[in-house]
Structures are given as C-alpha cells and as structure tokens.
Amino acid sequence: MFRSVKLFAALLKWPLRPLLKYKVVPEQPVSELQLDTSQPVFYICPTESGSDLAALQHVCKQLQLPDPASYVVLDGVKHFRTLFLEKPHSLVLKRGKTSAHQQALALLEAHLKNPTLNAQIIPVSILWGRAPGKENSIKWLLGEAHAPNWLAKLLIVLVSGRHSLVRFIPALSLQQMAAQFGADDDTSRKLLRMSRFHFYRQRLAANGPKLVNRSQLFNSLLAAPALKKAIAEEAKSKHISLVQAQKNAHKLLLEIAADYRSSTLRVADRVLNWLWNKLYTGIKVHNADVLRDLAQKGHEIVYVPCHRSHMDYLLLSYVIYQQGLVPPHIAAGINLNFWPAGTIFRRGGAFFIRRSFSGNKLYSAVFREYLCQLFIKGYSIKYYTEGGRSRTGRLLQPKTGMLAMTLQSMLRGIDRPVTIVPVYLGYEHVMEVNTYLSELQGSGKKKESVFGVIKAIRNLRDYGYGYVNFGQPLTLNDYLNQTVPNWKQDIHPIEVQKPQWLASVVDDISINVMQRINQAAALNSINLIALSLLATEKHTLTRQELEQQVDFYLQLQQQAPYHNQMTLPDANSSTLIEHAISLDKVQQQRDNFGELISLTDENAILMSYYRNNILHLFIMPSILANAILHQREVKRERLLHIVQQLYPLLKQEMFLQLDNVEDYCLQVLDHFVKANIIKQQGDQYLAPAQQSSHYFMLSLLADNAEHTLQRYAMLLQLILTQAPQNRADLEKQCHLLAQRLLQQHGITAPEYYDKQLFTTLINALRDNGYTKTDDQSRMLATDSLTELDQAIDSLLRNDVLLSIHSILPTSRS
Description:
Layout: H1 2-16, E1 22-25, H2 29-32, E2 41-47, H3 50-63, E3 71-74, E4 77-80, E5 82-86, H4 100-113, E6 120-128, H5 150-160, E7 164-168, E8 172-173, H6 174-181, H7 185-207, H8 214-222, H9 225-238, H10 242-256, H11 262-279, E9 282-286, H12 289-296, E10 300-305, H13 311-322, E11 329-333, H14 341-347, E12 350-353, H15 361-377, E13 381-382, H16 401-410, E14 418-427, H17 433-440, H18 450-458, E15 465-470, E16 474-475, H19 476-483, H20 502-519, H21 525-533, E17 540-542, H22 543-559, H23 573-582, E18 587-591, E19 594-598, H24 601-631, E20 633-635, H25 636-654, H26 661-674, E21 679-681, E22 684-686, H27 693-703, H28 706-721, H29 727-745, H30 755-767, E23 771-773, E24 779-781, H31 783-793, H32 798-812
Parallel strand pairs: 1-7, 2-5, 2-6, 9-15, 10-13, 10-14, 11-12, 11-13
Antiparallel strand pairs: 3-4, 6-7, 6-8, 14-15, 14-16, 17-19, 18-19, 20-22, 21-22, 23-24
C-alpha cells in the first residue's frame, strides 16, 4: 500500500507545486525540536494521502530532512519511513485500515531486540487551509473532514493549497518507548493513540473551535439566565417593556461582538506580510514555543500584552498566526470601531469594549456573558490590562475589569486550565510617539478616523525591528489552588459569582502579570542608545564613548541579568549604532578629532520614550552607581540599606520583581568590581577617579535614576514641609512643582507630565508605611519617611535639590 501512495505522490509532485504554499512550524525543526539527524528518522501522518506525502516530501527536502517516501534499514530489515494513521474516506467502498499498527509494532520489536538503536518518530500534521468550519454546517467538503475522499481532497487542495500549515511535533524516542513499555500490541496502539491525540490538539490549536452562527450565538446569549435577569431589571428600572429591553441588549451585542471570518484572516495574512516588510527591518519573536506547548496541552490561552501602539493589535495576532496557532479574539477600544477599520477588525476577531461600564448594568451583563461564552467555546482571548496606550514608555497601572471577568468566567466551570501569557511588545519606532508628549501636556487625544489611517499609510517607511517576547505564563487554576484552595466551591454554572476573595486576588494577579511583562523586555539599538545619550547634558557622545557605554550596558545584563526572560541584541555596539543612524534616530557628525553621535532637542524628548521601555532593567544598578558616586566611599551595608528603602517604591512604580534584592545588588556590584568600574576594599566600595573613563561610564548609568529620584524628593518634601493635604491636593501640588522644575532645569522627561506616576508613588508610600492618613484623609509623615528623605537627598544633584528646597518654603506663605 505504501508503494501505491508513493507512486501517487510522485505523479503529483509537479502538478502540486504551483498549488502549494505553506508555513512550517517551527521554522527550523531540526534545531528547535533538537532532532538528531544522525539517527534514523521516521514520520507519522494523520491520513494516507498522495498529496500529503508529496507536500511533505517538498518540505523535508527544503529543510534537509530525510525523504518521507524512502525506506529505513534497521538490522537488515527495510521499514517504510512514513506511517499513516488512517485511510481517506471512499466515494463508494468502505474505508479500510492502514498498516500503521503493524509498522509501529515492527519498529518497537526491532528496538527491543537491539537497544543500541535509537530511531525518532516525528508526528507531522499537514493542514490544507486554516478554516475552523462552522457548527451545524454542511460545508465539510472544503476542509472540515479530517480524512476526505479523493474528490473532496482535490477541491481542498485547489481552494486552500496556498494557505497550508505544516507542523512538526517533538519527536518520540522509539528506543525509550520500547524499553519503558515493551513491544506488544498495547504499546503499538498506545503510540498511535498518542499521535492521534497530538493531531487533534494540533488541529484545534491551529484552526480554533468551530465557529458559531452569529445570530444563533446572540439568541443563546439572550436566553442565558444571567442575561435574562439583567434584561428584566433593565425593563423595571427604565420603565420599558421587556421586548424593548431585549432589543436594547441585542443592540449592545451588535456593538460588542466579533464577526470572526477565516477569509479575513487569509487576506490579512498576505496584507500584513507586505506591511511588515514595508514597515520593519524584521520582527523578532522569542519564547513562542511556550505558546505551542500550552496549546498542545489544551490550555485556554489569555494573551495580556503591554500597549505601546495601535500596531499592537495587528502585530501580535499576526505573530500568533505565524506560529501555527489560531489568532485570539481581541478586546479593542470602542474608539477603533470606525468605518472601515471597525468592520475589518471585527471580522478579524476584535470585539469592542467601552472605556467604562459604570452606570450601565445591562451593558456590563451583556459584555460579561459574551466574554464567558468565548471562554466556554474555547476561543483564545487577548486584552490590554493597561486600558490604553502608554504615553511615557513605562507600563501603566493595570485596569482589572477584564481580568476580574476572566476569573468570573472560570467560576462558571470552564473544564480547561486557563493560562495568562504576558507579552512584551517593543519597537524601535512607535508611529504615534510624536503625539504622546502633547497628549500628556493636555492637548487631548485625537479621535481615530479613516483619514488618520490614510495619512499613516502615506508615511510608511523603515521603522527598524519589532519585538514580540512571550513572558512566563501564569496558569490561573494553579494560582488559585495555592492562594484560594477552596475556590472551586464558588463555581456556579449560571450565576455570576463575586466571592470575597475576588478583588484582592485580581489585584495580585494583575501586578504579577505586569511584572512578568517587564521581565521579558527586549534590549535593542534604540533603547540602549537612548539610555546612553539622554544621560549626557548635551545629549552627545563621541562614537568611542557611545560604543563603550552600550557595551557596558550589554555586559551588565549578561553578567548580572535582571531576569532570564529578557532578550539582548545579537549585534555588537558598533553595528547597533550604525542601525540607529540608518533609522535617523541619531545625528552623526565628523570633525578633525573624530566622530560625534548626538540627539536633536526634538529627538531627545522622543527618545526618552524608548529609554523608559527598559529603564526598569537598569534602575537598581543606577541607584547603586548614584550612591557610590555621591559618597565616594561607602560600605556594603549602607548601600544595601539604601536599596532596601527604595526598592518597595520602585517595585510598585516600575513593576519590579527580584527573587532576592540583596543577592541581585551584590551580583551587580561584583560585576562593577570585575569590570574595574569601581574598587573594593573589604566591605567598602570606592568610586573611580573623577577624570577616568570609568567614572564617566558610571555617572552615565547613575543619571538614569535622576528623574525618578527627583520626583520622589518633590513628593517627600511636600509631605514633610507643607501643611497636611489630602491625596488629590498633594497630587496637584506635585504636578505643579514638576512643571516648575521642567522649566528651571530644562528637564525633557515625559513622565513629569504624567499625573498617574505621582498617584502611584503616593499609594506606594502609604502601602509601605512611610505615610499615614488622619481622620480628615490627609497625608501625614511617619518616622521612616524622614530617613527615606535623607537617603534620597544623598543621591540627588545639588542644583536640583536646592531648587526643590527653595521653592517649597515660598509656597507655604
């Protein structure tokens, strides 16, 4: 039988070529799946098909893998290299069985007889098209049948052949399986069952669950007990008929719900391929194997990325699709629901959400029920906990509404583990960055429109690299089992549950997710150069100085890494600088003494956005550098005490998470010493000579904490020297004082305009016992606040410190 399939594949080799276009996942299976090509390799495929075998031959030839249509000789016995699990359906005759069971049994027996053999068997699925199909649909002919007859397969190849996915699954060791389970019928069948299960999960992960007819979905949602109750309450509270209230709910569903279509994805895939080639030098993706593993295990995946740009919506979905997984349904702001983008986004899986649910119980009930149905049906979800795009480049404090509804959906009894995947999105150029500072200054956010899209398309150019780093997943089931062991007692299949533990657990999870996003940060040419040049007074360094500083930062993260999920560029400092010059991010000048690299005044403001993307990776080393430079000689104990005082505030503001702060700081200090940046005498650390290059490098690192420390000093002085104020007044005073310092010292940091940072700092001071409130809700200092103030003052520049102290007494009069 194998010979007939082989012959049919040979006949199809040339006719199939123009009809076949495929995506291979993973792109380099030999290295990514750690295949040992020196050992015998076998393949196992779902269906005995000449077209599948011909396609697999083409792919294996390109990847330099053994020909699946060949034979393998083990101890003098020839074995077919490819096993097929089932035969295709027949138009007339009854479907027979393949010889896969006998083949697997023969291979296991060969390995049991000769333990030196170590053949690998690789499950390979070939998906002709990525359409999930529809529930109750008769369109099985175009791809929903897993083993179609030859006529159906012909149509499938003609319609979907140029939109195919070839997925290699990690190889199984036949030697290990034979040694562990033996070589009998049961083991052979176990091998085939495992393969069938892998293929089923793979189809589901790549295509997604079958689509529900939109009108049927709406009818089932409106009939749900929780929504029927909300509709009745709407009719009663607004004194309208039940029919009218139901129409209102249906109208809200039309506003919210996605209209997911696989045809839109096929078109979008081609358009986005063109767009990324036009926009970016390349898209760098890291840790994507985690996604494939979760999907293979049947997890319900919730993607939670940071939010830098409107481009995030397209980029992340595109990357997920390219990894062989079905794109998620996306919670998009209602501001993006404008013609024609809204219709396109909706058909690509976007469902739209209002900025606020307050005062609209029916909307809240409709949205919650819709989200719950997405989880129950098995669709992956993507939402942004920050609520909006970051205007400063830092992560925003999370909004917890979507996460709370995710947990409430779990309390409806989802039978699969629900796992949050944090995603760090980074760019060497954010298209909207020019508008962010003006928005922070109060100009107001521009409304999205079709004209804005056209204008953006006209300005397309090379924006460097985009980065998609998948962080460490957080499985909510495991998290709840640890923190709320009895959480399953609150499961109710119908009613919306709000147990007492929900609010605190949601807050903890949201912070944990933001920390994991920051742990997966990507260093690149732009943010490293911004970190270096913005630390200088004139935003200028010689080429040699800039290369030394960038190398210093790279070596610091190599020798004392903030986290192992973080990624570093694979180019040297010279190449990184050339790349930044090619993107017009920096200016290059030459004179008789050499080459200067600088930022224009406008670019200096914009580049602070990219510096803030990675500032959290360097903030603790910057604090240490500040303390050493200002005190010249400082004991280890004093350094660690300063860090311990500041870390709780920095942790809350920048979403830091270090397993052991003291160990991390000692690791950083050890690197400073080994790199001859500082000297060590016993338990004392000594600053380098002021005229040395090491002093200059350390001072540039130290400057990156300057703006953060200045903001801390402002707030502390307001609390310590002014009459007690409530939180709102204190935030206002901080903002006014920040504007004064901006003018007085020419500070260009956009975070000075961000009122939310002062709110976060005020909360952090309260949460960590540095302040307390009186019976009139006014902020009062505790004894530890004075000590913290002294520590911060010891790290600040004298001119800025003097300005803060001189302004505040005037404000009291």
